[in-house]
Here is the input.
Amino acid sequence: MDTESETRRAPDAGAAGERRRGADRRTRPTRPFDVLRGHRRRRGGRRASEREGIYVDRLATPDVMLVLAIFVLNILDAYLTLDIVLHGAEEANPVMATLLGRSHAAFLAQKIAVVGFCLVILGAHLHFRIARAGLVGLLVLYAGLFVYHLDLQSTAAALPTLPP
Here is the structure.
């Protein structure tokens, strides 16, 4: 055998001419939550047919910005909801209204934790059409909700503040 063919051996062919260091990472597919495990290399598929329905090790910057934008809008929604409730409005969601009746901290913790958890799940599945559509839909929904809150804030500015 010549030197060239020895360095191209398969991993099970022996380590005499193996150029790789460490375990072959291609022995198992990328799993859904590998994106959470730190610095990895795979950002997308290697072939044109692998653009959709795959898991990646690293999310692209626009994908991270999409998830973070939704998370920030969720936090703004929570705080603006608290503010408008302090001006006498009522929460339309009965589950959230119950939490608001208990404490503001319980309301904020539940809202941030549930949406954050859902964003992690959707972010891990970002290269699947339904997950991407869900994230874009959430961004549009929260952006609309933010505009609605701004309108409510302008109306509520004239109202007295209720004690917590």
In short: The first helix runs from residue 3 to 7. Residues 1-10 have pLDDT under 50 and may be disordered. Residues 61-156 form one domain. The helical segments are 3-7, 61-86, 94-102, 104-124, 129-156.
